[in-house]
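Please, structure for the following, as tokens.
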Amino acid sequence: MSDKILLDNRDGVRVLTLNRPQKKNAIDTEMWVAIRAAFRDAAADDGVRCLLLCGAGEHFCSGVDLASFGDAAPGEQHPFESAARAVVEFDKPLVAAARGVAVGGGATVLFHADMVYIGESFRLRLPFASLGLVPEWGSSYMLQANIGAQRAAELFYTAEWVNADKAMDCGIAADVLPDADLFEHALSRAREIARWPVNALREIKRSLRLHHLAAIDLAIRHEQEAMLRQAGSPENIEAITAFMEKRPPDFSKLR
């Protein structure tokens, strides 16, 4: 297991900590592989009755480390896809504790958590439109399912920052805590869940997710196809060039 992912067992709760604080826990190829293994192992281990996902340091996750997408060999599928599937298919309760930034994949993973607790410093952004890209991780479906179509459309189309109060108001989070209290509160709730028998928890999770799975699968497949069309497109290149040049992107002349 990579030291960029920390695992700790606490009374039936497995705590998975993204541990790359110097990069705001941006997820690279090594971490995707470790995340995939951690979720599969937690699913298979009857001693784990709940998984708690959090980030080391002041931030939850700044998203995908774009530089890592050059790591896969030609023709080889990037491990992001199978890691995302491992999270989607996880059949036990998943609790998340997030403070600081949650951007891109660092935000969309939260939509698959059963309960999300956030700190007062929490700020979420779905930057896909501003990058000339599309959502991922089935988020084009899951965010609508969680907060409604209009609110989801607003966040995707505007790529605006969402603070803790708005995240709570629109239903992304179950509760907002002072940053200093966030982890212990989320752990306490996870421990409450972990008191119950593992197979009952599995069946409840399956019951809650069953009617979503076909829609999530369809969303993921469409997102992957759309991402292949958009990655490297003139829109995407202009967005990346503008970022590197520290200027606002200009999409007005692109068709």
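The chain has nine helices and nine strands. The beta strands are 5-10, 13-18, 50-55, 94-98, 101-103, 115-119, 123-125, 162-163, 175-177.
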